[in-house]
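Anyone? Bumping this.
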Amino acid sequence: MTRSILLLSAALLLAARCEPDPVVPDPVVDAGADPVLPDVGADPIADCQAAHETLARLGCRAADGSSLAYGPTGETFAHACVMAYAGGVDYHAGCIATATDCSQVDSAAQGLLCLEAGAP
Amino acid sequence: MIGKLGRLPKKADPRTLQLARYLSPTLPPIHLSTSWARLATGDPPMFANDRIGDCTVAALAHSLRICSSAAGNQIVVSDADVLKVYSAISGYDPDDPSTDRGAYCLDALKYVRTHGLGGHKIRAFAEIDPTDLRSLYATIDLFGTAYGGYGLPRSAQSQLVWDLSSGPDAAPWSWGGHAMSETDHGPFAENMATWGRLQTATRAWGQRYREESYAVIWDVWVPPAGLSPSGFDLAQMLEDLEAVTR
C-alpha cells in the first residue's frame, strides 16, 4: 500500500546531556488542550466508538504490527479517534465501523471504502 | 540505551519553505497507520549518538536509511559521515570534547541539502506546523519520514513508551533538546528512530514536546522523471526553493 505511494511519489543515570545547562526556549504550544470538535453535522464520538468496537472485534493491527483497537498505554481507538478529529485528522470512523475485514480498514479510514460502496 | 541529545532551540529563517503551501486540497487522505521503518533491514544504528551529541545529523541519517530502504536500496551512512556533518555545522572537534555542544536542526538540513550526508543530498525540505497532525502524517505518508525537534522532558528517561506525565520532570527541556526522525504513525502513537531503536511516543506526547518539524525529500526518494506523489506540488516547491536560495 505504502509502496504504491512511493512509486507515485539505572541506565537513566548514564543519560548524558549535550548542553550542561539546557536553554529553555519559548513556551511550547500545548496542543493537548481540551479539543473543540468541528461542527460538520456528524457525531464523531458515536462513530469513533463504533469504529473502536469494529477494530476490537476484528482484531486489526496497524502497519507496525501494534493493535488498532488499543494503544500502547491502554487508550482506546474511540478516544484516540475523537482526539484526532479535534486535531484535524478525520479517520472516517463511521466508515471504519462498517468494515467486515481488517484488509478494509485502511481504505475505510480514508473514506474510500464507503465511496466505493456508494455511501455519501 | 539512552544516548546523548544535542539539539539546540529552534532557529528560525523566514526563507524556510512552508509545507502547507504545497499540499493541495486534493491531497490523498492520510492512512490510518503507516510504517516505513518496517521496510528497513536490521536495527536502527546509533550513528555515534550514544557518545556524542550529534542527534541533529543522526536523525537525518535515520531518515536516509528509512527512505532509501523504502526506495529499494537501503543506505546506511557511517558514523564518520555523520560526525563530519556535525563538525561542519557545530564546530565540533573530535579531539576536544568541550566542543560537543549540539547543533540546530535547520543548520543540519541546510548543510545536507547543499553538501550531502555520505554522498546523499536532501533535494528539498519544508517546515511543518508542529501542531498540525494532518500535515505531519501526510508528510510521513508521502515522504517516508518527518524530521522533528523536541524539547525532551526528564520523565522520558524512565518511560518505555513516552507519554504525558506531571510534575517538574514533565516540563519541556527538563532533559534537553533532541532531534529524531518520525518513521511511523498510527491512531495512538508515532515511532521515532533514535539511539539504535524505534522509540514509541503517544500522539499527545508528540504534540506537547514537538517544537519543530520538517518534511525532508531525499534525492533517493524523488521518483524518476520528477513524478510527484499525487496531491503534492513538488515542481512548484523546487522552483520556490531555487528562488529563495539564489
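Late reply, but here is one note on the structure posted above: Residues 224-230 of chain B have pLDDT under 50 and may be disordered.
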